[in-house]
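Good morning N.,

You mentioned wanting to compare the apo and holo forms, so I went ahead and generated the holo version with zinc ion. This is what I fed in:
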Amino acid sequence: MAQVNMRDMLYHAYQNNYAVGAFDLVSLDFLEAVIDAAERCRAPVILSVAEPHFAHYDFELMLPAVEAAAKRASVPVAIQLDHGHSLESATRAINLGCNGIMLDASNRSLPENIQLTRTVVDMAHGCGVPVIGELGYVAGIEGEGAEQHPGESAFTVPAEAKVYVERTGVDCLAVSIGTVQGRMKGRAKLDFQRLKQLNQAVNIPLVIHGGSGLNEDQFRRLTSLGVAKINYFTALSDVAAKTMSAQIKQNPNGSFTELKAGVKEAIREEVERCLRLWGSAGRAAEVLTQCEPWTPIEHLIIYNVEQISDQQTQAMMDEGRKVLSTIPGVRGVFTGEAVKEKSKFRFCWLVRFCHKAVIDTYREHPDHIAFANKLFRQVANDRISIDYQDSQNTSPAILVNNKKIKLHPS
Ligand SMILES: [Zn+2]
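and this is what came out, ligand included:
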Protein backbone atom coordinates (compact mmCIF):
# COMPACT_ATOMS: atom_id res chain seq x y z
CA MET A 1 0.00 0.00 0.00
CA ALA A 2 1.66 3.19 -1.10
CA GLN A 3 -1.11 5.55 -0.06
CA VAL A 4 0.27 8.06 2.42
CA ASN A 5 -1.05 10.90 4.55
CA MET A 6 -1.52 13.84 2.15
CA ARG A 7 -0.72 16.41 4.82
CA ASP A 8 2.69 14.82 5.44
CA MET A 9 3.27 14.62 1.70
CA LEU A 10 2.56 18.30 1.14
CA TYR A 11 4.59 19.44 4.13
CA HIS A 12 7.54 17.47 2.81
CA ALA A 13 7.23 19.35 -0.47
CA TYR A 14 6.77 22.68 1.31
CA GLN A 15 9.85 22.20 3.45
CA ASN A 16 11.95 21.06 0.51
CA ASN A 17 10.82 23.67 -2.03
CA TYR A 18 9.19 21.49 -4.63
CA ALA A 19 5.58 20.90 -5.66
CA VAL A 20 3.56 17.70 -5.85
CA GLY A 21 1.35 17.36 -8.92
CA ALA A 22 -2.38 16.78 -8.46
CA PHE A 23 -3.81 15.52 -11.71
CA ASP A 24 -7.53 15.28 -12.32
CA LEU A 25 -8.57 11.92 -13.71
CA VAL A 26 -11.51 11.59 -16.08
CA SER A 27 -10.93 8.02 -17.28
CA LEU A 28 -8.74 4.98 -16.69
CA ASP A 29 -6.36 6.27 -19.39
CA PHE A 30 -5.58 9.26 -17.17
CA LEU A 31 -5.20 7.09 -14.08
CA GLU A 32 -2.77 4.66 -15.70
CA ALA A 33 -0.81 7.44 -17.38
CA VAL A 34 -0.36 9.46 -14.17
CA ILE A 35 0.79 6.45 -12.13
CA ASP A 36 3.10 5.33 -14.92
CA ALA A 37 4.68 8.79 -15.13
CA ALA A 38 5.14 9.04 -11.36
CA GLU A 39 6.78 5.62 -11.21
CA ARG A 40 9.10 6.39 -14.10
CA CYS A 41 10.48 9.45 -12.37
CA ARG A 42 10.07 8.23 -8.76
CA ALA A 43 7.78 11.08 -7.75
CA PRO A 44 5.08 11.33 -5.09
CA VAL A 45 1.78 12.10 -6.77
CA ILE A 46 -1.82 13.06 -6.02
CA LEU A 47 -4.59 11.26 -7.86
CA SER A 48 -7.37 13.77 -8.04
CA VAL A 49 -11.08 13.38 -8.71
CA ALA A 50 -12.87 16.68 -9.27
CA GLU A 51 -16.48 17.15 -8.29
CA PRO A 52 -17.21 19.31 -11.39
CA HIS A 53 -16.18 16.28 -13.50
CA PHE A 54 -18.66 13.87 -11.91
CA ALA A 55 -21.00 14.55 -14.81
CA HIS A 56 -18.50 12.67 -17.03
CA TYR A 57 -18.02 9.48 -15.02
CA ASP A 58 -19.42 7.57 -12.07
CA PHE A 59 -17.43 8.61 -9.02
CA GLU A 60 -18.40 5.47 -7.09
CA LEU A 61 -17.04 3.26 -9.86
CA MET A 62 -13.91 5.34 -10.41
CA LEU A 63 -12.69 5.44 -6.82
CA PRO A 64 -12.11 1.68 -6.36
CA ALA A 65 -9.91 1.77 -9.46
CA VAL A 66 -8.00 4.78 -8.13
CA GLU A 67 -7.53 3.05 -4.80
CA ALA A 68 -6.33 -0.13 -6.48
CA ALA A 69 -3.80 1.90 -8.47
CA ALA A 70 -2.59 3.60 -5.27
CA LYS A 71 -2.25 0.24 -3.56
CA ARG A 72 -0.22 -1.21 -6.41
CA ALA A 73 1.98 1.86 -6.90
CA SER A 74 5.62 1.79 -5.85
CA VAL A 75 5.61 5.56 -5.29
CA PRO A 76 3.73 7.46 -2.55
CA VAL A 77 0.21 8.40 -3.55
CA ALA A 78 -2.64 10.43 -2.06
CA ILE A 79 -6.20 10.54 -3.34
CA GLN A 80 -8.03 13.85 -3.22
CA LEU A 81 -11.46 15.19 -3.88
CA ASP A 82 -10.88 18.33 -5.94
CA HIS A 83 -13.28 21.29 -5.83
CA GLY A 84 -15.60 19.66 -3.31
CA HIS A 85 -18.55 21.97 -2.74
CA SER A 86 -20.27 20.75 0.40
CA LEU A 87 -19.92 18.90 3.69
CA GLU A 88 -21.95 16.06 2.17
CA SER A 89 -19.71 15.59 -0.86
CA ALA A 90 -16.57 15.81 1.31
CA THR A 91 -17.91 13.14 3.70
CA ARG A 92 -18.94 10.89 0.84
CA ALA A 93 -15.51 11.23 -0.78
CA ILE A 94 -13.73 10.28 2.47
CA ASN A 95 -16.01 7.29 2.99
CA LEU A 96 -15.26 6.17 -0.57
CA GLY A 97 -11.48 6.40 -0.15
CA CYS A 98 -10.22 9.98 -0.59
CA ASN A 99 -7.59 10.98 1.98
CA GLY A 100 -7.43 14.64 1.06
CA ILE A 101 -10.20 17.18 0.52
CA MET A 102 -9.95 20.35 -1.50
CA LEU A 103 -12.94 22.39 -0.47
CA ASP A 104 -13.91 25.16 -2.82
CA ALA A 105 -16.20 27.72 -1.25
CA SER A 106 -14.20 30.53 -2.85
CA ASN A 107 -17.21 31.92 -4.71
CA ARG A 108 -18.87 32.78 -1.37
CA SER A 109 -18.32 35.78 0.86
CA LEU A 110 -15.40 35.55 3.29
CA PRO A 111 -17.58 34.83 6.36
CA GLU A 112 -19.54 32.13 4.48
CA ASN A 113 -16.36 30.63 3.07
CA ILE A 114 -14.88 30.50 6.57
CA GLN A 115 -18.01 28.94 8.03
CA LEU A 116 -18.38 26.13 5.47
CA THR A 117 -14.65 25.44 5.42
CA ARG A 118 -14.52 25.21 9.23
CA THR A 119 -17.35 22.65 9.21
CA VAL A 120 -15.58 20.52 6.62
CA VAL A 121 -12.23 20.82 8.43
CA ASP A 122 -13.80 19.62 11.71
CA MET A 123 -15.35 16.61 9.97
CA ALA A 124 -12.25 15.75 7.90
CA HIS A 125 -9.75 16.16 10.75
CA GLY A 126 -11.91 13.77 12.77
CA CYS A 127 -11.11 11.27 10.01
CA GLY A 128 -7.38 12.10 9.90
CA VAL A 129 -7.90 13.75 6.51
CA PRO A 130 -6.33 17.13 5.63
CA VAL A 131 -8.26 19.94 3.95
CA ILE A 132 -7.14 22.46 1.37
CA GLY A 133 -9.19 25.63 1.40
CA GLU A 134 -9.38 28.26 -1.30
CA LEU A 135 -9.47 31.99 -0.87
CA GLY A 136 -9.65 34.49 -3.68
CA TYR A 137 -11.23 33.37 -6.88
CA VAL A 138 -9.51 31.58 -9.77
CA ALA A 139 -11.83 32.09 -12.72
CA GLY A 140 -12.58 29.54 -15.42
CA ILE A 141 -13.36 25.85 -15.71
CA GLU A 142 -10.77 23.08 -15.91
CA GLY A 143 -10.33 21.66 -19.37
CA GLU A 144 -12.24 24.37 -21.20
CA GLY A 145 -11.22 27.58 -22.91
CA ALA A 146 -10.81 30.42 -20.42
CA GLU A 147 -12.53 32.83 -22.81
CA GLN A 148 -15.74 30.77 -22.55
CA HIS A 149 -15.78 31.43 -18.81
CA PRO A 150 -14.51 34.95 -18.48
CA GLY A 151 -15.54 35.47 -14.81
CA GLU A 152 -13.59 38.02 -12.81
CA SER A 153 -10.63 36.56 -10.99
CA ALA A 154 -10.17 37.93 -7.50
CA PHE A 155 -6.61 37.84 -6.17
CA THR A 156 -6.08 36.51 -2.65
CA VAL A 157 -5.48 39.24 -0.08
CA PRO A 158 -2.71 38.29 2.42
CA ALA A 159 -4.43 39.82 5.48
CA GLU A 160 -7.66 37.95 4.67
CA ALA A 161 -5.71 34.75 4.07
CA LYS A 162 -4.20 34.99 7.56
CA VAL A 163 -7.65 35.33 9.14
CA TYR A 164 -9.10 32.58 6.94
CA VAL A 165 -6.34 30.08 7.84
CA GLU A 166 -6.55 30.86 11.56
CA ARG A 167 -10.33 30.55 11.71
CA THR A 168 -10.74 27.49 9.50
CA GLY A 169 -7.73 25.40 10.50
CA VAL A 170 -7.07 24.35 6.87
CA ASP A 171 -3.87 22.42 6.25
CA CYS A 172 -3.05 24.09 2.92
CA LEU A 173 -4.34 27.07 1.01
CA ALA A 174 -5.16 27.42 -2.70
CA VAL A 175 -4.49 31.00 -3.76
CA SER A 176 -5.35 33.21 -6.67
CA ILE A 177 -2.37 35.16 -8.00
CA GLY A 178 -3.07 35.37 -11.72
CA THR A 179 -3.63 31.84 -13.05
CA VAL A 180 -6.96 30.81 -14.57
CA GLN A 181 -8.56 27.40 -14.74
CA GLY A 182 -8.61 26.12 -18.28
CA ARG A 183 -6.97 27.27 -21.49
CA MET A 184 -5.96 30.87 -21.91
CA LYS A 185 -4.61 32.98 -24.72
CA GLY A 186 -1.06 34.09 -24.09
CA ARG A 187 0.75 33.62 -20.82
CA ALA A 188 -0.60 34.35 -17.36
CA LYS A 189 1.04 37.23 -15.51
CA LEU A 190 1.65 36.05 -11.97
CA ASP A 191 1.84 38.32 -8.94
CA PHE A 192 4.91 36.87 -7.22
CA GLN A 193 5.15 39.73 -4.73
CA ARG A 194 1.66 38.81 -3.50
CA LEU A 195 2.61 35.12 -3.34
CA LYS A 196 5.60 35.96 -1.18
CA GLN A 197 3.38 37.97 1.20
CA LEU A 198 0.82 35.17 1.30
CA ASN A 199 3.47 32.64 2.19
CA GLN A 200 4.74 34.84 5.00
CA ALA A 201 1.22 35.54 6.25
CA VAL A 202 -0.05 31.95 6.46
CA ASN A 203 3.10 29.82 6.65
CA ILE A 204 1.39 26.67 5.36
CA PRO A 205 1.77 24.89 1.99
CA LEU A 206 0.22 26.89 -0.87
CA VAL A 207 -1.59 25.46 -3.87
CA ILE A 208 -1.96 26.72 -7.41
CA HIS A 209 -4.93 25.86 -9.60
CA GLY A 210 -4.77 26.52 -13.29
CA GLY A 211 -1.15 25.43 -13.72
CA SER A 212 -1.55 24.64 -17.43
CA GLY A 213 0.30 27.01 -19.74
CA LEU A 214 2.84 28.38 -17.26
CA ASN A 215 6.51 28.33 -18.25
CA GLU A 216 9.50 26.76 -16.54
CA ASP A 217 10.65 29.95 -14.92
CA GLN A 218 7.19 30.64 -13.50
CA PHE A 219 6.98 27.16 -12.00
CA ARG A 220 10.42 27.52 -10.44
CA ARG A 221 9.46 30.79 -8.80
CA LEU A 222 6.19 29.30 -7.54
CA THR A 223 7.90 26.42 -5.76
CA SER A 224 10.52 28.73 -4.27
CA LEU A 225 7.73 30.86 -2.73
CA GLY A 226 5.78 28.18 -0.87
CA VAL A 227 3.72 26.47 -3.58
CA ALA A 228 3.77 22.76 -2.62
CA LYS A 229 0.98 21.50 -4.85
CA ILE A 230 -0.01 22.26 -8.40
CA ASN A 231 -3.37 21.23 -9.82
CA TYR A 232 -3.07 20.33 -13.44
CA PHE A 233 -5.65 19.09 -15.87
CA THR A 234 -6.32 21.27 -18.91
CA ALA A 235 -3.00 20.53 -20.62
CA LEU A 236 -3.56 16.78 -20.10
CA SER A 237 -7.04 17.03 -21.57
CA ASP A 238 -5.59 18.96 -24.52
CA VAL A 239 -2.83 16.47 -25.36
CA ALA A 240 -5.35 13.61 -25.09
CA ALA A 241 -7.81 15.35 -27.41
CA LYS A 242 -5.08 16.35 -29.86
CA THR A 243 -3.84 12.77 -30.07
CA MET A 244 -7.36 11.54 -30.81
CA SER A 245 -7.98 14.24 -33.43
CA ALA A 246 -4.81 13.23 -35.25
CA GLN A 247 -5.91 9.58 -35.20
CA ILE A 248 -9.34 10.50 -36.55
CA LYS A 249 -7.80 12.46 -39.42
CA GLN A 250 -5.54 9.57 -40.31
CA ASN A 251 -8.12 6.85 -39.86
CA PRO A 252 -11.67 8.26 -40.14
CA ASN A 253 -13.29 4.82 -39.88
CA GLY A 254 -11.15 3.59 -37.01
CA SER A 255 -12.61 1.74 -34.04
CA PHE A 256 -12.82 3.39 -30.64
CA THR A 257 -9.69 1.65 -29.37
CA GLU A 258 -7.83 2.49 -32.59
CA LEU A 259 -8.79 6.14 -32.29
CA LYS A 260 -7.60 6.43 -28.73
CA ALA A 261 -4.30 4.70 -29.42
CA GLY A 262 -1.47 6.83 -28.08
CA VAL A 263 -3.65 8.85 -25.71
CA LYS A 264 -2.21 7.27 -22.57
CA GLU A 265 1.37 7.81 -23.75
CA ALA A 266 0.68 11.45 -24.58
CA ILE A 267 -0.75 12.10 -21.12
CA ARG A 268 2.09 10.22 -19.47
CA GLU A 269 4.74 12.30 -21.26
CA GLU A 270 3.11 15.56 -20.19
CA VAL A 271 2.76 14.40 -16.56
CA GLU A 272 6.37 13.28 -16.50
CA ARG A 273 7.51 16.62 -17.86
CA CYS A 274 5.62 18.39 -15.05
CA LEU A 275 6.92 16.13 -12.27
CA ARG A 276 10.50 16.83 -13.35
CA LEU A 277 9.86 20.53 -13.75
CA TRP A 278 8.26 20.91 -10.31
CA GLY A 279 11.07 19.08 -8.50
CA SER A 280 9.04 16.13 -7.26
CA ALA A 281 10.90 13.62 -9.45
CA GLY A 282 13.28 11.49 -7.39
CA ARG A 283 11.54 12.30 -4.09
CA ALA A 284 9.51 9.08 -3.71
CA ALA A 285 11.88 7.30 -1.32
CA GLU A 286 12.15 10.20 1.15
CA VAL A 287 8.42 10.76 1.13
CA LEU A 288 7.74 7.09 1.82
CA THR A 289 10.12 7.14 4.77
CA GLN A 290 8.85 10.36 6.28
CA CYS A 291 5.08 10.20 5.72
CA GLU A 292 2.50 8.28 7.68
CA PRO A 293 1.24 5.31 5.65
CA TRP A 294 -2.50 5.54 5.08
CA THR A 295 -3.96 2.43 6.67
CA PRO A 296 -7.49 1.54 7.65
CA ILE A 297 -8.59 0.28 11.07
CA GLU A 298 -10.93 -2.67 11.49
CA HIS A 299 -13.33 -2.12 14.37
CA LEU A 300 -14.47 -5.60 15.37
CA ILE A 301 -17.29 -6.51 17.72
CA ILE A 302 -18.29 -10.11 18.34
CA TYR A 303 -21.44 -10.63 20.39
CA ASN A 304 -24.42 -12.73 21.40
CA VAL A 305 -27.96 -11.42 21.72
CA GLU A 306 -30.54 -12.10 24.42
CA GLN A 307 -34.26 -11.32 24.71
CA ILE A 308 -34.80 -10.72 20.98
CA SER A 309 -35.86 -12.95 18.10
CA ASP A 310 -33.76 -13.73 15.05
CA GLN A 311 -36.00 -11.44 13.07
CA GLN A 312 -35.43 -8.56 15.47
CA THR A 313 -31.69 -9.24 15.37
CA GLN A 314 -31.78 -9.05 11.60
CA ALA A 315 -33.69 -5.76 11.73
CA MET A 316 -31.18 -4.36 14.21
CA MET A 317 -28.28 -5.27 11.90
CA ASP A 318 -30.06 -3.74 8.88
CA GLU A 319 -30.59 -0.51 10.77
CA GLY A 320 -26.97 -0.49 11.97
CA ARG A 321 -25.57 -0.91 8.47
CA LYS A 322 -27.70 1.98 7.26
CA VAL A 323 -26.96 4.39 10.10
CA LEU A 324 -23.31 3.61 10.82
CA SER A 325 -22.08 3.57 7.24
CA THR A 326 -22.83 7.29 6.79
CA ILE A 327 -20.72 8.36 9.78
CA PRO A 328 -17.65 10.26 8.53
CA GLY A 329 -14.61 8.02 8.11
CA VAL A 330 -16.56 4.75 7.89
CA ARG A 331 -15.48 2.86 4.79
CA GLY A 332 -17.87 -0.02 5.22
CA VAL A 333 -20.01 -1.95 7.70
CA PHE A 334 -20.14 -5.75 7.63
CA THR A 335 -22.64 -7.64 9.75
CA GLY A 336 -22.11 -11.36 10.10
CA GLU A 337 -23.47 -14.52 11.62
CA ALA A 338 -21.17 -17.38 12.59
CA VAL A 339 -20.99 -20.19 10.04
CA LYS A 340 -20.71 -22.85 12.75
CA GLU A 341 -23.77 -23.08 14.95
CA LYS A 342 -21.94 -23.65 18.23
CA SER A 343 -19.55 -20.69 17.93
CA LYS A 344 -18.77 -18.86 21.15
CA PHE A 345 -20.07 -15.64 19.64
CA ARG A 346 -22.87 -15.88 17.14
CA PHE A 347 -22.78 -12.42 15.54
CA CYS A 348 -20.27 -9.76 14.54
CA TRP A 349 -19.85 -6.21 13.34
CA LEU A 350 -16.82 -5.38 11.28
CA VAL A 351 -16.65 -1.64 10.73
CA ARG A 352 -13.80 -0.32 8.62
CA PHE A 353 -12.44 3.12 9.53
CA CYS A 354 -10.31 5.06 7.06
CA HIS A 355 -7.84 6.11 9.78
CA LYS A 356 -7.21 5.56 13.48
CA ALA A 357 -8.56 9.05 14.26
CA VAL A 358 -12.01 7.68 13.48
CA ILE A 359 -11.92 5.37 16.53
CA ASP A 360 -12.69 8.37 18.76
CA THR A 361 -14.93 10.41 16.48
CA TYR A 362 -17.04 7.34 15.66
CA ARG A 363 -17.48 6.50 19.33
CA GLU A 364 -18.67 10.03 20.04
CA HIS A 365 -20.79 10.49 16.91
CA PRO A 366 -24.46 11.11 17.84
CA ASP A 367 -25.73 8.55 15.29
CA HIS A 368 -23.48 5.88 16.75
CA ILE A 369 -24.42 6.76 20.33
CA ALA A 370 -28.14 6.70 19.51
CA PHE A 371 -27.93 3.36 17.74
CA ALA A 372 -25.75 1.75 20.39
CA ASN A 373 -27.89 2.95 23.29
CA LYS A 374 -31.32 2.37 21.77
CA LEU A 375 -30.86 -0.81 19.77
CA PHE A 376 -27.62 -2.59 20.45
CA ARG A 377 -26.11 -2.50 23.92
CA GLN A 378 -29.16 -3.59 25.89
CA VAL A 379 -29.56 -6.81 23.87
CA ALA A 380 -25.85 -7.55 23.49
CA ASN A 381 -24.32 -7.57 26.95
CA ASP A 382 -22.13 -10.48 26.00
CA ARG A 383 -19.66 -8.86 23.61
CA ILE A 384 -16.02 -8.16 22.85
CA SER A 385 -14.87 -5.10 20.97
CA ILE A 386 -11.37 -4.60 19.54
CA ASP A 387 -9.80 -2.21 17.00
CA TYR A 388 -7.25 -3.79 14.68
CA GLN A 389 -4.72 -2.24 12.35
CA ASP A 390 -3.14 -3.94 9.39
CA SER A 391 -0.05 -5.73 10.72
CA GLN A 392 1.59 -5.60 7.30
CA ASN A 393 1.34 -1.90 7.03
CA THR A 394 1.65 -0.33 10.45
CA SER A 395 5.39 0.01 10.80
CA PRO A 396 6.78 1.32 7.54
CA ALA A 397 10.01 2.29 9.23
CA ILE A 398 11.89 -0.25 11.32
CA LEU A 399 14.85 0.45 13.50
CA VAL A 400 18.11 -1.17 12.45
CA ASN A 401 21.13 -0.10 14.53
CA ASN A 402 19.03 2.84 15.72
CA LYS A 403 18.59 4.11 12.17
CA LYS A 404 15.23 4.25 10.52
CA ILE A 405 15.16 1.91 7.56
CA LYS A 406 12.25 2.02 5.21
CA LEU A 407 10.66 -1.22 4.16
CA HIS A 408 9.71 -1.01 0.54
CA PRO A 409 5.93 -1.18 0.35
CA SER A 410 4.65 -4.02 -1.75
ZN1 LIG B 1 -8.96 23.76 -10.01
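The chain has two domains: 6-290, 297-389.

Happy to go through it together on a call whenever suits you.

Best,
F.
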